[in-house]
Structures are given as C-alpha cells and as structure tokens.
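Private note to self, pasted from the team thread so I don't lose it. Backbone tokens:
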C-alpha cells in the first residue's frame, strides 16, 4: 500500500490501516466482491494465473485384475491482469486535519463511492480497454463450449419461477452450483410483486430477496431485463495490493481545500463461463 502527501498535517485524516478507507467499502458494497457472486482474491503480482479444468480425467470399471487405461485431465489457464481505476475527492482542510473516526468514515465513503461504481460497471458490462471485461462480454455461442454462458429464454415477462429452475438445472449440468442471482432493481421489484395465484394478494416469494435458497443481489449497473445466475466458484475478482492514496492542496489552493486521490487495480476472471447463466428475452 502507498501513501503520498504534499500537504502538511493532512495525514491526520488517515488511520494506520489507511487502505481500509477504500478497500473496506469496496468489498462491502461492490457486487464484484460479493462472495455470493464471485471469489475475491488479493495479489501482489502484476498478473494472477487461474488454472482451469476443462475436462476431467476418465475413470473406468475393470475386472479385479484388469488393467487401467491412463487418462489425463484437460487443463488450461486464465491470466488476469488487474486494471487501474481511481477517484479524486476534494475535502476541506478542517476535515483533513480532523482525526475523528466519523471524519475518516465520511472520507472513506467519498473515496470509495466512485470506485465502486466503476468496478461494478465493468463487472457487469463490456467496456473498452483499459477497463477489464465483464459479464456482458462473455459469448453465448463459441466453438469451445466451455467458454459459453448458459442461456435461459425468459420471454417478454417472468410470471413464475420456472426460468430460475431452468437456470439451476443449466448450471448443475455443467457441474456448477448457482450461489446468487444478480439483476437490476426493477427486475427484483417485478419478482417481488408476483402473486401466488390470479386475483391473489399473497406474494409468490415469501422473501423476495431469496430465490431457491440463493440470495438476490441487485445493482443499478445491471441491464434491465437481464438476470444472472452466478456460481461464485466460477468467477474470481482479483484486487492488487498496491492501493494508493495521494494527498495534495495544489489543485484547490485558492479555496483552502485538499484533494485526495485514490487508485487501485482490479480484474475479473470468468474461468468457467458455462456455469454462469444469463436469463433474458431472446426475441
């Protein structure tokens, strides 16, 4: 972790574990770091290598004294190179000189808010470089079958839980296990408003934020109409250790404010895409 400052006295806003001002809100708020959706890891390296088991070794039944046929698993590797994102937050010199925990918490929220937005937009999207590629970049029809996400056609509107049951089956068919659902708030609301029968006022879901025992995670960065069933073991979110905070009064010298710049590096590894299920209207 790196702390740089060209402003006297400004370091009083930061506790000894200053990196937590950014990483704690990021890990708590970002869907990319939610353990129901992905497996977060931290690395000190420029690259993070993820081994991939494309096909298991084959076992056979044999007679008691029969010979076993040698078989090797089909292996691959995915390399994740975390990309840099950051934010710039101006604060008053008075707050910068205040070592109270409440001031530190406010600054931490300001530092993390835009970084969380950037990270989740990338995680769900298909942004141009240098942003990391996200869920929307994954193919539905690739010659190498394990690279394809599974697709469930929901039709124009979801009226029951059949699409979610189909998603569970699709993931399990690839030896996976859906650990969480990810969708836009409007889609979560539509599910919460489903009734158990025509002309009934009783909700179909007893708890609208749980479907088939899996949590429903919402993000306004998700595309409305597209729901995801994700296996956290199939996604790795990689955070580089070199989080940096830099403080300077140069940009806002005339207004007696201090600029706090924060940067970190994040990447995503979708190493078993066929265990991820995309649910939307294909028409």
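Design output:
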């Amino acid at each position: 972790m790196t702390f740089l400052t060209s402003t006297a006295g400004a370091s009083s806003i930061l506790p000894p574990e200053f990196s937590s001002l950014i990483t704690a809100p990021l890990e708590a708020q970002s869907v990319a770091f939610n353990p129901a959706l992905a497996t977060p890891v931290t690395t000190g390296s420029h690259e993070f290598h993820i081994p991939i088991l494309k096909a298991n070794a084959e076992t056979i039944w044999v007679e008691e004294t029969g010979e076993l046929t040698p078989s090797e698993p089909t292996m691959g590797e995915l390399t994740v190179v975390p990309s840099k994102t950051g934010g710039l937050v101006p604060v008053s010199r008075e707050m910068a000189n205040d070592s109270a925990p409440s001031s530190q918490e406010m600054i931490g929220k300001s530092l993390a808010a835009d970084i969380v937005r950037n990270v989740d937009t990338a995680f769900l999207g298909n942004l141009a470089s240098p942003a990391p590629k996200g869920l929307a970049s994954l193919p539905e029809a690739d010659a190498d079958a394990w690279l394809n996400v599974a697709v469930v056609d929901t039709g124009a509107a979801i009226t029951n839980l059949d699409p979610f049951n189909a998603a569970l089956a699709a993931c399990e068919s690839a030896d996976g296990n859906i650990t969480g659902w990810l969708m836009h708030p409007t889609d979560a609301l539509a599910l919460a408003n489903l009734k158990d029968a025509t002309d009934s006022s009783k909700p179909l879901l007893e708890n609208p934020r749980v479907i088939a025992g899996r949590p429903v995670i919402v993000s306004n960065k998700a595309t409305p109409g597209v729901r995801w069933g994700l296996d956290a073991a199939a996604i790795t979110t990689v955070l580089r250790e070199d989080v940096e905070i830099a403080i300077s009064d140069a940009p806002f010298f005339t207004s007696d404010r201090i600029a706090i710049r924060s940067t970190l590096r994040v990447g995503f590894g979708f190493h078993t895409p066929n265990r991820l299920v995309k649910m939307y209207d294909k028409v």
